[in-house]
Amino acid sequence: MDRNKRDTARPDRFHQRLQTRRHILSPRMRMVADYIDQNRASVLSKSAIDLAHEAGVSDATVIRTVQALGFNGLVDLKQMLANHLGQSSTTVSKVATTIEQLQQDMGSVVDHVLQEHLHAQQTLAQPETRLAMERAVAILAQARRIGIFGIAASGILATYAARLFLRHGTPSYALNLTGIGLAEQLLEMSPGDALIVLLARNTHREIQATMEEANRLGIPVILITSHQPHSLGPMCAQIIILPRAKAESIPLHGPTLSCLEMLMLGLTMAAPQRSVESMKRLVLLRKMIRPGK
């Protein structure tokens, strides 16, 4: 559900302020503003220092951002967010809403998932998405290796995507840990790689560190997201926009999976001989391990 249509009785004043004042914000201030916009419920319980830590900026930048958006201070901002949110949408409420909508009927479950995936495939088939895919494949075709960044559920998809690309001849690796574990994974990145980033909307220290390292190494970034404009957009060589899931429902990850498989097949078509040779080698290795298979 579009943010501007979530509650017609309560206009989204924060979003309105952000849109009208976005042009006066510095890049780091936009990171703060986007983090607040995309994490409204959790912002209510955070201090300026907490927000600075989450957005990867100084607490002074947080305060300057709040003031630039026309608020007297963080308390004033939180009051507006609280008034608009009413009850925050949580994972629990999303599960409850989805269950209620499906009415404990397996037929409605099948219809719900099929409708979500049908909408996703229709979006992926649009000309602008096709063009973005083509440009992304061109970037991947020039890469020595491919890194795939994803956290939580996206981390599982990152692991799967790395396996797909590797099987078809392109050395690949997943960047899917959090905290200091990710720091060790980032050592894998090197010039000549390309990076695919799976990110819904939240910006956090892990993605900030990953983007900064990619920028330092001159690695082109392909962002796959359902939110546009995205605060990371200016740092990316290509953005692929996926359809948004309904805000009140359990998110499904079929669109991201479809997108990754399209990129893999596109890269295979760009370098078919490499894919064939890789699969031949894979078959030989399997026979070495299990001769009778």
Automatic annotation (TrEMBL):
Domain of life: Bacteria
Gene Ontology biological process terms from the UniProt entry: glycolytic process
InterPro entries: Homeodomain-like_sf (IPR009057), HTH_RpiR (IPR000281), RpiR-like (IPR047640), RpiR-like_SIS (IPR035472), SIS_dom (IPR001347), SIS_dom_sf (IPR046348), WH-like_DNA-bd_sf (IPR036388)
Residues in HTH rpiR-type domain copies: 12-88
UniProt keyword annotations, A-Z: DNA-binding, Glycolysis, Membrane, Transcription, Transcription regulation, Transmembrane, Transmembrane helix
Alphabetized PROSITE patterns for the sequence: HTH_RPIR, SIS
Pfam families recorded: HTH_6, SIS
Molecular function terms, GO-annotated: carbohydrate derivative binding; DNA binding; DNA-binding transcription factor activity
Organism: Corticibacter populi
Domain SIS: 136-281
Transmembrane intervals: 146-166
UniProt keyword Protein transport, yes or no: no
Protein's recorded name: MurR/RpiR family transcriptional regulator
